[in-house]
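Side project, low priority. Logging it here so it doesn't get lost.
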Amino acid sequence: MGANANLTTSCTAAAPSSTANLGPGYDVFGLGLNALEDMVRIDKMSRASSEVTLKVTGENYASIPIQVNTNSAGLVVKKMSEDFKIRSDLEVNILKRIPAGFGMGSSAASAAAAALAFDGLFNLKIEKEKLIEYAAEGEIASAGTKHYDNVSSAILGGFVIVRTSPRLQFISLEPPQDLVVVIAVPSINPSPRKTELARSVLPDCVSLRNVVHNVSAASTIVAGFALKDVQMIAEGIDDAIVEPARMFMIPGYDAVKRNALKSGSLAVTISGAGPSMISILKTEKQAQTVAKSMAAGFKEENIESNTYVCKPSSGAKIVSMMS
């Protein structure tokens, strides 16, 4: 296929943080955010034994596994190497800027950046939809299963709807320009494989009434993005199924939500599997006030937190290539 004939010896890609679900859109909605990003550099080594090695630096890097089969970027590179019959030894350098285990799409960002860097390194020119499928391989490391909401929004940027039946499809909508998101990240130690744990607490059966409620709410969110209406998006962020099952896992949940709404947030919900929480606003004027109020909510539980005021991202990108 000529992949090894490519003269590029190193490729670096970056992928942004993201938030998933937006309340009722469990495993379906993803929104890329420019709060933070992970970077992955893949280097071809002189050896040709198809070995992949990992190095991790950056935010809480000591907690990130460096074994290929338990690291999101490592799983992606391993799968792509096998599929494209790459013989080169590869060194994967991961710079973590997104804290792992906090519902900000950390594993997805590393996986997305790895898929894009691999594609660039070997000049494969893989379609973005297929890159998303490869990046989803990395989610097995943190969630125990492939899911596409974070990785799709990390690669494509903006708001993404994931459709899995009858075929896998990613529907991308450009967010309103005036959409502002505030993320509050509590300074707690997340449980190992937190995403997998957060999925395990979800109910196996739900009432038809709650299903109708969530379909209505999710449809309102989609309409809001399509019509570029932040107020409508916020009105749809109302989850009757997943959030009630997970709220007990977040100390300070009630106080953070109450404070944010009082200080001007249009909607508040859990970011992905948590424990971070997000607020939706239509202007940056009140963003810092909302951020402080959310931090005060966590403080009521004696928990410090970091807050980020951000906008939707433009997706993953190649940062540099070397020959």
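Brief comment: The two ends are 20 Å apart (CA to CA).
Revisit when time allows.
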